[in-house]
UniProtKB/TrEMBL annotation:
InterPro entries: DNA-dir_Rpol_C_phage-type, DNA-dir_Rpol_phage-type, DNA/RNA_pol_sf, PPR_rpt, RNA_POL_N_sf, RPOL_N, TPR-like_helical_dom_sf. Residues 62-89 form a coiled coil. One of its GO terms (molecular function) is mitochondrial promoter sequence-specific DNA binding. Homodimer. Component of the mitochondrial transcription initiation complex, composed at least of TFB2M, TFAM and POLRMT. In this complex TFAM recruits POLRMT to the promoter whereas TFB2M induces structural changes in POLRMT to enable promoter opening and trapping of the DNA non-template strand. Upon metabolic stress, forms a complex composed of FOXO3, SIRT3 and mitochondrial RNA polymerase POLRMT; the complex is recruited to mtDNA in a SIRT3-dependent manner. Also forms a complex composed of FOXO3, SIRT3, TFAM and POLRMT. Residues 146-155, 233-247 have a biased composition (Basic and acidic residues). PPR repeats lie at residues 326-360. Gene3D superfamilies: 1.10.287.280, 5' to 3' exonuclease, C-terminal subdomain, DNA-directed RNA polymerase, N-terminal domain, Tetratricopeptide repeat domain. The keyword Kinase does not apply. Residues 112-250 are annotated as: Disordered. This is DNA-directed RNA polymerase.
């Protein structure tokens, strides 16, 4: 510690900013970058701005010399005393303050890693710009008492270290402890990389690191011995039972350890959950390696082989950079030389691999053999030698064909080379027919005799034609459609504004094209060092005009209130990446092969082909194996890092802001004519964070609003697909034809989910479920859509959830803050009015545009049939990929969708339509199905009136909870009852069956809780049990009792406690809502009641939240025990330094990506963008998020498993099935069949020992490597975790088979 302070004292006294002191640390002692200091952390506990203020007050700006010297002397005395206190710490264990600035691997600006500790300031003024150097100024003053004491202390420390080293040499077998917590957490964080220094500096650093390493080991040994002495003393005096385990606990722990060791040896579960969390060092290099790989691939794609070769060699030459290279990075250049047939260059890269200490892999040998296959003069002896070497490395020729990803004709050239020396060789390819290990689906895959997989209602020729249409859409990457606002009558002003905008855009295109080319020329002349990454290759992947079109499109889509620079930049970067992926697939000849395989795949789906009991995934894999020659369809593209997309997008935005201009008098000739920018870069505050914004000029906003343009342009991935999606066959391939899609949605930059999925042996049930959901064809309900559009183009309707136009927005008041006529309170009031009006306008614009997009897409698809490809989140919950228009949307969107395939109603179909309509009204939730049916018959006149005259009749449908779906159902019922035979009426309408508080249903089944199961309809009852009404009734009883005792707030609430007030809180308690969140929910409901006194809302919401939580605790005792067990398990797992993982009963691995926040700083010429990274695996887990999220995430993973099981068995029964999480949809004809399957699969799921298997998995995952020595500092935490996991909550006496008889389980 003292050595560090000696290095930095002179600067510390000469500067007022603590940030300067930190930079000084880096100048004086390079070791500070890689080790931490507990002392500096304690000194830095106060916020940064307070530290600066304190230091500046200790060292005044303008004082006489005597006073300054006196105060500095006082400061020296304080620090000197602190030094003496820390002198016992021999370890040079120094944290580089709170903020680490290291050069980034990427591009022009770069990234800095900022580790934010508690209380640290986020003020950007404390962050130096990129490239800013810190000058080194030696103190010219004479040596002081401080320096003398430090030099003396340094000598003493060196003596102690020498003595320790001598002792260690005498006892060489003594084991040193591992790295301390501080040193482990101070490893270089993700997105940071090497720092280039001169050769002399390297030598100095090497010497410093060597010395530091030696002294650090010695110091750790001394520290450990001291700790042991302290521990031995504390054990004598410590009476705490937690630190002194009883004999029974010890026996139980020993038994658990023995059992875990046996399981660990057998590795029963490890096939499902292989370790993927690498060491911190490897994780910190992952982003750098990905950036290097993307850069090389971009250089190769643009044809600049020389640049890519120079870059690779420059990385290889320097040892610090060579360590970041992988075999796959070298293989990129091998592929290039293999295409050219240059064998000597490939030989050189093999030498480079050996120098780097890396082994060639299958791709390396594949490239070498491909090159030999292209080279007509290659001797067979060379090929044989290559095959022999490959065999020595433990690789076979079949491995090459099985594991390599081929492009263009690479596979054919590889086969040609092999057959030169082995003429009879043919690749041995076998279809991966391994079945899921889950007992839940074993019978589904093995016994298919009674399966009747449904066919689509299309001919094979029709499906192939639809494929070609979808292919052309994805090749264009964008779709331009008519806006529903185009239906409005065109005025003269609209025509004028449209012409003006068209003229300006033509001019902007020319300006942007010129600016882009100039910027590219500048980039070619800057960062000329070979090892530097820059953006130039990424600006050459597409035609210049394509970049300009992306810019113009983003300007058109910019909202009047502006967009965050971070969001806008990422959107631009992602569009470039999508176009690049599509062009890559063209270049690699994937499109031709895709056409061939998809053409054959339609035979499985079409109605005019033979029936076969094969799933879509299985058929696709079979066709791929049969057509194995040519390129590989999957795994060819590399995902770009989030930071790269941001930096590329920021570069594009910078060009737009600087070059897009407009005449100031374009709308008003009275103004002075001058060119003004149409986009402004400004800052605003989001909470306490300063955020960069790109805002359009009001002139541009006015022109766009008045023009009411007739077209909208979307990315192709936003639109539904025009043909059945490609089935998911792996975690990297499925959904769209060419557009890249992810199987599992995750936070930008998070990779742990993908890595876990890649190592999972079998995800077939998950793939097959997603494929079943994706293969459901849809069409638009045109009568409903036309009514919605007419209201949308009129003035909207808040009651019917159709947002009004901006002309209905409140006017923003204008006032002069300098006007002396206003008092201070009046000015404050006016400011609030302005802020609220702007906020309201912004919200109205967002809602209006969202509705415009959905309705315009629906209008565009009105005469077409379409499909929604599906993927899932990290818990397994499924979602349609198109974001705007899908069946997971609002009531408005759902009402416009019906199944493309129709089925006759049959004997009970009309009754199900009527029951579904009553469910949509929300009026008869406590009534039986027969009661609901009788109610529907009693209001048939209102139903028919709503269908015939929805806007001018009685408007009964408008009072429903879901008015638009209710209206659609009224029309379907009207058509059915007026048909000659309702049983033969062909219905396309989806009927819903919704779970009764599904989260609580899963908890009640897990705990076999009889009372809880009855409350949520797992137990058969004559009428449905409504848990929300039950809780509301219980709360009302408690309120009445309190009111009788004279409690004022209980008296105020009389008559206001209803099902609606408590419903949201009851529903979300099971998903981990806190009392704070529950209070906000109840507060919102109370504010919606006009009669409730607003001055009592706060007290009433607090009071009701307490009553609701108490009532739930009494009703669901088993639920609370399981929830507490899950929460405490996650807390202890997180405390031990792990993130929580588990595997669903279907075999889907899940990991919670919640880590402590690490701030990354992306530096660009526009601004520094601060990124809060919460998924960095090198950071410790966020204990609060881990424990709070585990119960709801675990239940979500169970409800997704239940849905997937239901979808698989509905598919095998020939049903049309889709879901909105715990709400299942099918035709009216097949509701009874779906209900039967739904109940059977719920019983099958919960008949598995779910909690016991979870307990075993967590014990094996987290406790199998437990340190058995009680002196280990983490042993107590592991011991508590082991005991907790072993004690699975007790279950009740509920008989699961009763669920099969429960009418209202899903209804």
């Amino acid at each position: 510690m003292s050595l560090l302070r000696a290095c930095s004292l002179a600067k510390c006294l000469g500067r007022r900013s603590l940030a300067d002191v930190r930079r000084c640390f880096a100048d004086r002692c390079q070791l500070c970058v890689s080790v931490r200091s507990a002392a500096v952390r304690r000194i830095s506990e106060t916020p940064l701005y307070l530290q600066r203020r304190n230091i500046s007050s200790v060292i005044p700006k303008s004082e006489d010399a005597k006073k300054r010297v006196h105060e500095q002397s006082q400061l020296l005395d304080v620090l000197e005393a602190r030094i003496q206190q820390l002198q016992s710490d021999v370890v040079l264990d120094v944290q580089h303050a709170k903020v680490q600035f290291l050069k980034s691997p990427s591009f022009r600006g770069g990234l800095s890693s900022v580790r934010t500790l508690k209380g640290s300031s986020k003020d950007k003024s404390d962050i130096p710009k990129s490239g800013q150097a810190v000058t080194k100024r030696a103190s010219k003053s004479q040596p002081s008492r401080w320096m003398e004491k430090l030099s003396e202390e340094k000598k003493n420390k060196l003596k102690k270290q020498q003595i320790l080293q001598q002792k260690m040499q005498r006892n060489p077998k003594e084991k040193l402890p591992g790295k301390s917590k501080a040193s482990r957490s101070s490893l270089m964080p993700t997105s940071t990389t090497y720092k280039t220094i001169s050769s002399a500096a390297k030598k100095r650093r090497a010497a410093a690191v060597t010395t530091a390493a030696t002294s650090s080991k010695a110091a750790e040994a001394l520290k450990t011995s001291k700790q042991k002495r302290r521990d031995s003393k504390s054990k004598v005096s410590d009476k705490d039972a937690t630190n002194k385990p009883e004999d029974g606990d010890l026996a139980e722990i020993e038994e658990l350890e023995k059992r875990l060791n046996e399981q660990a040896q057998q590795r029963i579960c490890l096939s499902t959950m292989e370790r993927f969390q690498e060491s911190s060092t490897r994780s910190s290099c992952a982003d750098i390696q990905l950036s290097i790989r993307c850069y090389l691939e971009a250089c190769v794609f643009m044809g600049d082989v020389e640049r890519s070769q120079r870059f690779l060699l420059s990385q290889h030459r320097v040892m610090s950079r060579r360590k970041q290279l992988t075999t796959d990075i070298y293989n990129i250049m091998m592929r290039v030389w293999a295409k050219k047939g240059t064998l000597n260059q490939i030989g050189r890269i093999f030498i480079l691999l050996e120098e780097a200490g890396l082994k060639p892999n299958v791709s390396s040998y594949s490239a070498a053999l491909e090159c030999m296959g292209r080279n007509k003069n290659c001797p067979p002896k060379v090929i044989s030698r290559c095959l022999d070497q490959m065999k020595k490395d433990g690789l076979s020729v079949d491995d090459l064909f099985r594991e390599c990803v081929f492009r263009q004709d690479e596979r054919d050239m590889l086969l040609k080379a092999v057959q030169t020396v082995r003429p009879d060789y043919e690749p041995s390819l076998t279809l991966n027919a391994s079945q899921s290990s889950s007992p839940l689906v074993k019978d589904f895959y093995t016994n298919r005799d009674h399966h009747t997989y449904p066919k689509l209602d299309f001919t094979q020729e029709d499906l192939q034609r639809r494929f070609q249409h979808q292919l052309s859409v994805e090749q264009a990457c964008t779709v331009t459609i008519d806006s529903v606002e185009a239906m409005k009558p065109v005025t003269e002003n609209m025509v004028k504004m449209r012409e003006l905008l068209a003229e300006q855009r033509a001019q902007w295109q020319k300006v942007l094209l010129q600016a882009l080319r100039e910027n590219k020329m500048i980039l070619t002349k800057t960062n000329t060092r070979d090892y530097k990454l820059n953006l130039y290759p990424y600006l050459c992947l597409l035609e210049d005009k394509e970049y300009v079109d992306i810019m113009i499109q983003s300007v058109s889509n910019l909202p009047p209130s502006g967009e965050s620079l971070k969001i806008l930049a990422h959107d631009l970067g992602n569009r470039i990446y999508t176009k690049y992926c599509v062009r890559q697939k063209h270049q690699n000849c994937i499109v031709e092969k895709l056409q061939s395989i998809y053409g054959a795949y339609t035979e499985l789906l079409a109605k005019d082909t033979k029936v076969c009991n094969v799933l879509p995934r299985e058929q696709w894999c079979k066709l791929e194996m049969e057509q194995s020659s040519g390129p590989t369809l999957q795994g060819a593209e590399t995902s770009w890092p989030y930071v790269l997309m941001l930096e590329l997008g920021t570069f594009i935005v910078d060009i737009m802001v600087k070059n897009l201009k407009i005449n100031s008098d374009i709308l008003n000739p009275a103004y002075d004519k001058k060119l003004i920018p149409i986009l402004y870069h400004m800052y605003t505050f989001r909470s306490t964070r300063q955020v960069g914004f790109i805002k359009p000029h009001p002139i541009l906003t006015q022109m766009q609003q008045e023009a009411m343009e007739t077209t909208l342009t979307f990315d192709s991935s936003v639109m539904p697909m025009l043909c059945p999606p490609v089935p998911w066959t792996s975690e990297k391939f499925g959904a769209y034809l060419l557009t890249p899609a992810k199987l599992m949605r995750a936070t930008h930059g998070a990779t742990q989910h993908e890595e876990l999925l890649e190592k999972c042996p079998n995800l077939h049930p998950v793939f097959d479920s997603l494929n079943q959901l994706s293969n459901c064809a849809w069409r638009v309900n045109k009568p409903i859509l036309d009514i919605i559009i007419s209201i949308f183009n009129d003035r909207g309707s808040d009651k019917l959830d159709i947002p009004p136009p901006l002309s209905e927005a409140p006017k923003i008041p204008h006032f002069n803050p300098q006007d002396p006529d206003y008092t201070a309170s009046e000015k404050a009031h006016m400011k609030r009015e302005v802020i609220n009006a702007k906020k309201k306008c912004s919200e109205m614009h967002s809602l209006r545009m969202d509705a415009l997009y959905k309705l315009s897409i629906a209008h565009h698809m009105r005469d077409k049939l379409f499909w929604f490809p599906h993927n899932m989140d990290f818990r397994g919950r499924t979602y349609p990929c198109p974001p705007y228009f899908n069946h997971l949307g609002s009531d408005v969107t759902r009402a416009t969708l019906v199944f493309a395939e129709g089925k006759p109603l049959g004997p009970k179909g009309l009754d199900w339509l009527k029951i579904h309509l009553v469910n949509l009204t929300g009026l008869k939730k406590r009534s039986s199905l027969q009661g609901r049916l009788e109610y529907a018959d009693s209001i048939m006149e209102d139903i028919l009136d709503s269908a015939d005259d929805p806007l001018n009749g009685k408007k009964w449908w408008m009072e429903a909870d879901e008015p638009w779906q209710a209206l659609a159902c009224c029309m379907e019922i009207a058509n059915a009852v007026r048909s000659p035979d309702p049983t033969k009426f062909v219905s396309h309408f989806p009927v819903h069956q919704d779970g009764s508080c599904n989260g609580l249903q899963h908890y009640a089944a897990l705990g076999r809780d009889v009372i809880g199961a009855t409350s949520v309809n797992l137990m058969p009852c004559e009428v449905p049990q409504d848990v929300y009404s039950g809780v509301a009734q219980q709360v009302e009883e408690l309120r009445t009792r309190d009111a009788a005792k004279g409690l004022k707030i209980a008296q105020v609430l009389e008559g206001f406690i209803s099902r609606k007030v408590v419903k949201q809180t009851v529903m979300t308690v099971v998903y981990g809502v806190t009392r704070y969140g529950g209070r906000l929910q109840i507060e919102k409901r109370l504010k919606e009641i006009d009669e409730f006194p607003k001055d009592h809302v706060w007290d009433a919401s607090h009071y009701l939240t307490r009553l609701v939580f108490s009532g739930l605790k009494e009703m669901f005792t088993g639920t609370r025990e399981i929830q507490d067990w899950l929460t405490e398990s996650a807390r202890l797992i997180s405390k031990c330094g792990h993130t929580v993982e588990w595997v669903t009963p279907l075999g889907l691995p899940i990991i919670q990506p919640y880590h402590r926040t690490r701030n990354l700083l992306l530096k660009s010429t526009m601004q520094h963008i601060s990124l809060q990274v919460t998924h960095d695996t090198t950071e410790r887990p966020d204990t609060v998020k881990q424990k709070n999220a585990f119960p709801p995430n675990f239940i979500h993973s169970l409800d997704s498993t239940h849905m997937m099981l239901t979808s698989l068995h509905c598919h095998s029964a020939g049903l049309t099935f889709v879901s909105v999480h715990d709400c299942f949809w099918t035709h009216a004809l097949t509701v009874d069949t779906m209900n039967k399957i739904c109940r059977e699969q719920f019983v099958a799921l919960h008949s598995q020992p779910i909690l016991q298997e979870l307990s075993s998995f967590l014990q094996l995952r987290y406790c199998s490597t437990i340190q058995s020595e009680a002196k280990n500092k983490k042993y107590q935490e592991y011991r508590r975790l082991m005991l907790l996991l072993a004690k699975v909550p007790q279950t009740g006496d509920f008989d699961l088979q009763r669920v099969k008889e429960s009418t209202y389980f899903f209804s």
